[in-house]
UniProtKB/TrEMBL annotation:
Subcellular localization(s) per the UniProt record: Cell membrane; Membrane
Species, as recorded: Terrabacter aerolatus
Family: Belongs to the ATPase delta chain family.
Domain of life: Bacteria
Pfam family, one: OSCP
Listed name of the protein: ATP synthase subunit delta
Main location (coarse class): membrane
UniProt keyword Membrane present: yes
UniProt topology in membrane: Peripheral membrane protein
HAMAP family: ATP_synth_delta_bact
Keywords per UniProt: ATP synthesis, Cell membrane, CF(1), Hydrogen ion transport, Ion transport, Membrane, Transport
Length: 270
């Protein structure tokens, strides 16, 4: 985001955090914000109107009132007026910010019910499952198929097997990818979750599944190195043979056997 949008996002966030702190129904808030993003995305005229930098903020806040009062909850309207009432560098920055608030509201509900870690793990694993299955990936990305049909496919795979919040976000990712690939949508959702929870995420690849104790020790060790809290997502890949590979932020720590063998081969060939 450019300067004006960064300032607008910071200012509008006060309205969002305020309604959460006041006890808003988080699930309903998320549903309404996702729906509003869909409405804005579907109307070029509305996109221009809400993001027009030449219009006064108060005028755009009144526009939110006229368009959505009585159609969304009072809490959602507060968030919308708070977002519309600022200057954005682009239309996409405004809708991206509203979408991130919707995702955060879902994560906030998971936090309240003590399953935020579970939701992050399940979203990560589902993204990996889709990435490894070409037929499933094509089915979820098929924009010629009705969005509800794609959402129903997600439900058939996940309903009763994952947390409610995981299902909400997975369905949303296929119903409204907003021009992004499914994997990138889920990555954005996970980034929002990490940001809300003020933690970093590490992807750890190993030849065999890690135990809960292994994950806890890795998380503690990485937190000692990088500071703060580190959430560990795991990937099993027999090709690494042994050891682990850790990706955190832009850094890669590769302690796998296969890397050491590759290094030995390069040395012998030098």
């Amino acid at each position: 985001m450019q300067g004006p949008s960064r300032a607008a996002a910071a200012a509008s966030r006060e309205a969002f955090t305020g309604v959460l702190a006041a006890g808003a129904d988080r699930s309903r808030l998320a549903e309404e914000l996702f729906a509003v993003v869909g409405v804005i995305d579907g109307s070029a005229t509305l996109r221009r109107a809400v993001a027009d930098p030449s219009r006064e903020g108060a005028d755009k806040a009144q526009l939110a009132e006229r368009l959505f009062a009585g159609k969304v909850s009072a809490e959602a309207l507060v968030v919308l007026k708070g977002a519309f009432g600022h200057r954005w560098s682009s239309e996409r920055d405004l809708t991206d910010t509203l979408e991130s608030y919707a995702v955060e509201a879902v994560i906030a509900q998971a936090e309240a019910d003590g399953r935020a870690d579970r939701v992050e793990d399940e979203l990560f694993r589902f993204e990996r499952i889709v990435a490894a299955d070409a037929a499933l990936r094509s089915a979820l990305a098929d924009t010629q198929a009705p969005a509800e049909k794609r959402a129903d496919l997600v439900s058939s795979l996940l309903l009763g097997k994952v947390a409610p919040e995981t299902l909400v976000l997975a369905r949303q990712a296929v119903v409204a990818p907003r021009g992004l690939r499914f994997d990138r949508v889920l990555e954005k959702y996970l980034e929002t979750a990490s940001s809300r929870r003020e933690q970093q995420t590490a992807v750890v690849t190993s030849a065999v599944p890690l135990t809960d104790d292994d994950r806890a020790r890795l998380a503690a060790g990485l937190a000692a190195i990088y500071g703060g809290t580190v959430h560990v997502n795991t990937v099993v890949d027999p090709r690494v043979m042994g050891g682990v590979k850790v990706e955190i932020g832009d850094e890669l720590i590769d302690g796998t056997v296969i890397r050491k063998l590759d290094a030995a081969r390069r040395a012998m060939g030098a």
